[in-house]
Amino acid sequence: MEAFAQFIPLILIFAIMYLLLIRPQQKKLKEHQAMVAALRRGDQIITQGGLIGKVSKVKDDNEIEVELAENVKVRVVKSTVAQVISKTEPAAS
User: Fold this and answer.
1) What is the Rg, in whole angstroms, of the alpha carbon atoms belonging to the chain?
2) pTM for the full model?
3) Cβ neighbours around 76 below 10 Å, total
4) S-adenosyl-L-methionine: present as a keyword of the record (predicted)?
5) What's the CA angle centered on 68, arms 66 and 70, to 5 degrees?
6) How far, rounded to the nearest angstrom, does the alpha carbon of residue 67 sit from its chain's CA centroid?
7) pLDDT band at residue 4, thresholds of 50, 70 and 90?
């Protein structure tokens, strides 16, 4: 019984760490993955490097083409998109 009593503080510390650090981090990661998956042509984005541009083409599962200025396009890995500033509305059918 005394051995179990010695592990109670350790178990409590792990539970607090899970609730305060691990769980919110997992939630934030899922939100970021959903944002990246929803990227479409015409969305204005900010990359983790601080570049602001408009998505001109979604190439494949891992990269997009971003227009930074007129006739200046760069290829960007999707996971480096930090924020979507404005979303385009889907085309009416």
Assistant:
1) 21
2) 0.72
3) 21
4) no
5) 110
6) 20
7) confident
